[in-house]
Design a protein that fits this description.
Oligomer: heterodimer
Helix content of chain A: 55-70%
Largest sheet of chain B: 7 strands, antiparallel
Largest sheet of chain A: 3 strands, antiparallel
Radius of gyration of chain B: 17 Å
Distance between the termini of chain A: 54 Å
Number of domains of chain B: 1
Strand content of chain B: over 45%
Number of helices of chain B: 3
Number of domains of chain A: 2
CATH topology of the largest domain in chain A: Arc Repressor Mutant, subunit A
CATH architecture of chain B: 2-Layer Sandwich
Radius of gyration of chain A: 19 Å
Strand order of the largest sheet of chain A: 1-3-2
Structural class of chain A: alpha+beta
Shape of chain B: globular
CATH architecture of the largest domain in chain A: Orthogonal Bundle
Order of helices and strands of chain B: EHHEEEEEEH
Structural class of chain B: alpha+beta
Strand content of chain A: 5-15%
CATH superfamily of chain B: START domain
């Protein structure tokens, strides 16, 4: 189980990059080898592997080496449990604070 | 539920409001004002709303979602500095099961004619509670944040 001060930060950091987001989107279709994952990307294999390491550190992606092929897959539990739940709590705060803003705006127009 | 588990998380949300700190603070300080904005999502209905806004005082907000699930928020106020700071601890129950125990710190700072508000929550989230609706909302919010991050990068 995750037990760190800000797991969401790592997930945000991992996804807040167009290359990594496109890798996650690609993996949402199913497991893919590293070389297949790198193929549509206009960058070197070491650069792709660096991005992959960030995704793995965030817990979003897992890779396993079988024979000579390293296969990557999404690790859905990373988004399914703690982060989603904590994100839900943050979303609840955001929604309430929006409403607080609406209340303050409406209240200032009353005589 | 399988094994008892706990996840610790801290987050801060910053907001800017045009209203001065006195008015923003007042929105937290009376049951009437707080009821105007502090509530569950659309469709959620309050059943019990109590607020004793003083150091040592308590707050309770119990309600039901359209599907029949109940939520119960119980808070205990530890520190109140008018127009500047509120610190309270709260426990959250879903269907009468405790799902989290948190410390919330609300800071009000003057910013021009308005207010900067910072809400910090430090929580112990218990037993991987599966709050399906809330998690879906959380995921949507997470993806919106990613869109924003990409849009501004």
């Amino acid at each position: 189980m995750l037990n760190q001060s800000a797991p969401l930060d790592r997930v945000f950091h991992a996804l807040a990059d167009p290359t990594r987001l496109s890798m996650v989107e690609r993996l949402s279709g199913g497991p893919v080898s590293v070389s297949a994952l790198a193929e549509p990307l206009a960058m070197s294999l070491p650069a792709v592997i660096q991005h992959l390491q960030v995704l793995e550190a965030s817990g979003l992606v897992r890779s396993d080496k079988i024979g000579r092929v390293r296969t990557c897959r999404l690790e859905p539990t990373a988004l399914r449990t703690a982060e989603q739940w904590i994100a839900a709590r943050q979303a609840a705060w955001e929604r309430r604070l929006d409403r607080l803003g609406e209340y303050l705006a409406a209240d200032s127009q009353e005589p | 539920m399988t094994q008892p588990s706990v996840v610790h998380a801290t987050f801060t949300i910053d907001r800017a409001y045009d209203a001065p700190p006195a008015r923003v603070f007042a929105a937290w300080a009376t049951a009437e004002a707080k009821a105007r904005w502090f509530a569950g999502p659309d469709g959620w209905q309050a059943e019990i709303r109590e607020l004793d806004f003083r150091v040592g005082g308590r707050e309770r907000l119990r309600g039901v979602f359209p599907g029949g699930r109940s939520s119960d928020f119980r808070a205990h106020y530890f520190d109140i500095v008018p127009e500047q700071r509120i610190v309270y601890a709260y426990e959250m129950h879903m269907n009468d099961r405790r799902i989290s125990v948190s410390l919330a710190t609300i800071e009000f700072r003057p910013a021009g004619a308005g207010t900067r508000l910072a809400v910090t929550e430090q929580g112990a989230f218990l037993d991987g509670y599966d709050d399906a609706g809330g998690r879906e909302q959380g995921t949507r919010w997470l993806l919106d944040k990613v869109d924003q991050a990409l849009g501004t990068s």
